[in-house]
Design goal:
The protein has 437 residues and is α+β, with helices and mostly antiparallel strands. The protein has 19 helices and seven strands. The protein has helices spanning 43-47, 83-89, 92-101, 107-119, 125-128, 130-133, 140-153, 164-189, 203-212, 223-235, 243-252, 258-270, 277-289, 295-303, 322-338, 343-355, 359-363, 370-381, 388-409, and strands spanning 2-4, 12-16, 24-30, 36-38, 67-70, 75-78, 81-82. The longest helix has 26 residues, at 164-189. The protein binds s-citryldethia Coenzyme A. Residues 55, 239, 242, 273-274, 277, 302, 308-316, 364, 366, 369-371 line the site of s-citryldethia Coenzyme A. S-citryldethia Coenzyme A (SDX) is lined by residues 55, 239, 242, 273-274, 277, 302, 308-316, 364, 366, 369-371.
């Protein structure tokens, strides 16, 4: 395939030559940051060919205005705002608002959002009883996905979003209740009484209050803990067409409602290759800390392909994940503020140092991703490991909502339905039961 940019025509085209076919010209689309894509939407009708791309590493599924990543340069921007600026200057709710509605909120818009989040922070009491049915050892991600769908049973009016007001209400419910569901499932797993949200508290402070307050022991999260949690959520808020966001768009493309679509996103995020990696990282570091393995032994196992280095590698970032750099610095600051040391941090830094000076990892462009240091930050806040991926889901909720809404509003939207290359048996006759061996 060759591309030519005909100066007389405003658009570029790619010339594709296929065996036994006349050459075709395919439109080349150029994105805001000069990314180039060959538009193959007419390829099959023009040539009878489809493309094949295992894991979609080279395939754009959509046009999107939400997030831009340059994996070679370690650039992450949401609606044009650099992640470094958002991490340093915004609250999670400001970033969430901007992701969903496209602009940073004014003071009035932010106040309205905060009021809506407070208004919708409680769960219907009928929902509360669902927690009684879960066993204490139930996985929090299973509970989260189930309870998001169960939530929609109490709000049937939000299954068909007719207007902006409906969407705003559904968004506020999801952003607010996802915290309450997560905290209730944690308390349930410990057999503790649930703690209702406190309308006087900020988004992150309220979550920590619901997680850790006890009737007989006063609890107030420190300013540093609340700020660290807000930063964690900002860094997880959206990330282009990752597996779980692509899942939310896929489900939403069938015109499934917002609750069903993000519940599916929770399930995709659960996998250890995706959001579940933040739990695997801590397990890996704890094994090393317990003396079960040394850093060098883990690295050797990885190089023999007996083990994945959890929290390392990324489909898009090939030099560094900007979020990992910010999280590493945030961990240092929080531990210092709390006057504590975490041996897992020293092990993580040692592992990073060994791996990033080893040709095996350098050749494969493997560096720490968002999950490598995030768990150490959550540990320092007091969040238990089995809640780590739930925390990722709370952070990613605005990104999922923003992407679902982009699909929902798209006047040219089509149901996502990839093609395939069939590799099974050719046509063969039916064999009656009595003749089968
Ligand atoms: C997230 O997409 C997103 O944006 C995701 C995310 C988000 O914000 O939504 O950023 C969040 O999911 C981060 C990733 C969390 N997962 C992990 O930490 C799990 C460990 N990482 C790997 O499983 C892997 O790196 C992936 C899944 C993240 C990426 O997989 P790819 O792009 O399919 O990479 P690949 O399998 O093609 O790897 C290329 C080579 C292979 O070796 P060779 O066959 O060339 O010899 O690198 C190796 C892989 O075996 N490799 C690793 C490795 N990751 C890749 N080897 C050891 N340890 C690893 N972690």
């Amino acid at each position: 395939m060759s591309t030519n940019s005909d100066v007389s025509s405003p658009t570029q085209t790619a010339r594709l030559e296929l065996p036994g076919k006349d050459p075709v010209q395919l439109p080349v689309e150029v994105g805001t940051e000069n990314e180039h894509a060959v538009d193959i939407s007419k390829l099959r009708s023009q040539t009878g060919y489809i493309t094949l791309d295992n894991g979609y590493g080279n395939t754009g599924s959509c046009r999107s205005d939400i997030t831009y990543i340059d994996g070679e340069k370690g650039i992450l921007r949401h609606r044009g705002y650099a992640i470094e600026d958002l991490a340093a200057s915004t609250t999670f709710i400001e970033t969430a608002y901007m992701l969903i509605w496209g602009e940073l909120p004014t003071a009035d818009q932010l106040e309205t959002m905060r009021r809506l989040l407070t208004e919708h922070e409680l769960l219907h009491e009928g929902l509360r009883h669902h927690f009684e049915g879960f066993p204490p050892y139930g996985h929090p991600m299973a509970m989260l996905s189930a309870m998001i769908n169960a939530c929609s049973c109490y709000h049937p009016e939000l299954l068909e979003l007719e207007d902006e007001h409906h969407f705003e209400e559904a968004t506020a419910k999801l952003l607010s209740k996802v915290r309450t569901i997560a905290a209730f499932s944690y308390r349930k797993s410990l057999g503790l009484p649930i703690v209702y949200p406190d309308p006087k508290r900020s988004y992150c402070n309220n979550f920590l209050h619901m997680m850790f307050s006890l009737p007989h022991v006063p609890y107030e999260p420190t300013r540093e803990e609340v700020r660290a949690l807000s930063l964690f959520l900002i860094l997880h808020a959206d990330h282009e067409q990752n597996c779980s966001t692509a899942t939310v768009r896929m489900v939403g493309s069938s015109k499934a409602n917002l609750f069903a679509s993000v519940a599916a996103g929770v399930c995709a995020l659960w996998g250890p290759l995706h959001g579940g990696a933040n739990m695997r990282v801590i397990e890996m570091l704890e094994n090393i800390n317990a003396g079960d393995q040394s850093v060098d032994q883990v690295v050797e196992q990885v190089k023999k392909k007996e083990y994945l280095l959890w929290g390392f590698g990324h489909r898009v970032y090939k030099n560094f994940d900007p979020r990992a750099l910010i999280l590493k610095d945030a961990v240092d600051k929080l531990l210092e503020a709390k006057g504590i040391e975490d041996p897992l941090l020293d092990i993580a830094k040692q592992l990073e140092s060994v791996a990033t000076h080893d040709d095996y990892f350098l050749e494969r462009k493997l560096y720490p991703n968002v999950d490598f240091y995030s768990g150490i930050l959550l540990r320092a806040i007091g969040i238990p490991v089995n809640m780590f991926t739930v925390m990722f889901a709370i952070g990613r909720m605005p990104g999922w909502i923003a992407n679902w809404y982009e699909v929902h509003k798209d006047p040219n939207g089509r149901i996502y339905r990839p093609r395939q290359v069939y590799t099974g048996p050719a046509k063969r006759p039916y064999v009656p039961l009595e003749e089968r061996q």
